[in-house]
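Researcher: Please translate sequence to structure tokens.
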Amino acid sequence: MPPRSQPTARQRRLGAELRKMREAAGMTGRETAELLGVNAIQVSQIESGRAGLSEERIRRIAVHYQCADVELIDALVAMATDRARGWWEEYRGVLPSAFLDLAELEHYATFMRVVGTAHIPGLLQTEDYSRAVFAYRVPELPESELEPRVTHRMRRKAELSRPDAVPYEAVVHESVLRTRVADRRVAREQLVELLVQSERSNVTVRVIPFDVDGFAGAWAMMLYAGGQVAALDTVQRDAPYGTALLDASAELLAMRTLFRKVESASLEPAKSRDYIHRLVKEL
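Model: Translation complete:
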């Protein structure tokens, strides 16, 4: 089978975890190649996500790497053997791969924690709010580029309402709630949408008011997505020229700590809803 030309973020993560496992065992790619009966180039393709592995081979090299983390191995096997085609694949070749990677990350997450300090988090946006955000891009997007971005974002929202929806906690700064990305109507509808979503049993929305003391985290935008095991957690952050997916253990620890600091500056969920209600009345 030829190597994949466009591995997904999930496939790349599987390969990266296998590489980490090999390096922790102090083994070379050539040694792994000999074990599997392939060449070193094929091992490189496996570890970059461009080639897959069967369950039997994953368990075989895990034993060879002396990895005793059974839950991690089972999670990697599940990643390798999942052949399901996600709805986001319909957008391949239409949108940049980062959009597809984000939808895939959200779909497989076991929980999500998000900090919004520039915009309302994507899964909580209304269609008009989303359109206004994308339309502000420089250079401006043509309609043929704008609409797929909006429809993709609206389809992502289904993650919050599916039968097996996972816990989703969003911390949003008051500046985001008060910023009118479009007009008064769009602003009001967006606040109402936040209230509607916050009533879901799996959704928690917290607000950081302007007058709270000790909050210096305006730069702290992130999505923290839980994996099947903690070692497979992932953080998505905006970068100057796109987005970045972080998965190193030190990075994950730093982002968990950062989220706790941001969360500690926010109001409790009930008080946050009351706060949003007051902002709606102002409009």
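Researcher: Any highlights?
Model: The chain has a mean pLDDT of 95.
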